[in-house]
Amino acid sequence: QSCDIKCRRDLRLLDNAESLLQGLRGGGEEESEYLAEKNELKNEAISNELSSPIKFLSVLISGILGVIKSNLSTGSSVVGFASLIAVSASALIPLAIIHQSYSFTVGYGASVAAMSLALLYAFSVPSLLSAIKLKSSPALLANCCLLYGIRLTSFLLLRNWNSPVRREQIKSKDTSSKLKRIPSALSISIFYAFMVSPVYFALFYENKISLSGSVLEKVQWVGVGLAFLGLSLEAISDLHKYIVKRNNNAEYGGSVFVGPTGGAFALCRHPN
Question: Which of 113, 108, 112, 120 is nearest to 72 (CA)?
């Protein structure tokens, strides 16, 4: 940045001197040296500005994050929810383009994780341990939602990676062209945004409406408890099924069912 500023300052000084040189007679050699130096400085300035795509991307991402944060935390709830949809779509659409079925599997978890991260950033939500100390139910719910998205996405990617049959099943469902998947993924993104909207509204109204000592405050804590219980139950169930299938060399979607029927899986047949 300091180099860019210096180059621009030198260009201004050289431009001012150009009019003087043009008035000199017999100064052809000096003028040629001046023009060569000026062109060199111009090329250096252009190189500094265009040769760093990482710098450009960082500035672009920083600007986008600033807009999202402003819309979510200080804008109207309608504008904030629209921003939540945009975050959901930005995570889901690329994955749906890769594989059509990702709209309902990996893309779902990634979308939830992305929206949770956006909410944590926009409302400066503390980490899980800090949220426990602050006794903030909306902050805990947001952290739980993030853990849910990361856990689900990681598990589904791991399962697909280690199952050749599962990978073939995913490829076989790619029946639409990549461009035709975008409208469908966009509509699904809106659905996922509605699913995460309770977390958004809990954070949005936390400092606007006081629930201290009210029945609604107790209901909030019950809801947070259920969220963490559900997160734990589905994580254990998914892991249980995965281990049983791996130990028995069983594939997903086989003609004969091989998997757990008891334990946590008896309470959670469809963990996702």
Answer: 120
**CA distance linking residue 164 with residue 239, whole number of Å:** 19
Name the strand (E) or helix (H) holding 118: helix 106-122
pLDDT, position 146 = 95
Please compute the mean of the pLDDT values over residues 127-138 and round it to a whole number.
80
Q: How far apart are CA 111 and CA 217, in angstroms?
A: 28
- Specify the residue for token string 């008891």: 262
* 101 DSSP assignment: G
* 2 or 77, higher pLDDT: 77
| Distance, CA of 228 to CA of 143 (rounded, Å) | 10
Q: DSSP 3-state assignment of 176?
A: coil
Residues 120 and 202 sit within 8 Å (Cβ to Cβ)? no
CB-CB contact of 111 with 189 (8 Å): yes
How far is the C-alpha of 8 from the C-alpha of 2, rounded, in Å? 10
Q: CA–CA separation, 116 vs 84, rounded Å?
A: 9
What whole-number distance in Å separates Cα of residue 266 and Cα of residue 272? 14
3-state secondary structure of 131: helix
Residue 242, φ and ψ in degrees, nearest 5:
-60, -45
What are the E-state strand segments in 121-239? Answer: none
Distance CA 167, CA 51 (A): 39
Radius of gyration of the chain (CA): 28
pLDDT in tens, 43-92: 666 555 545 666 666 666 677 778 888 888 887 888 999 999 999 999 99
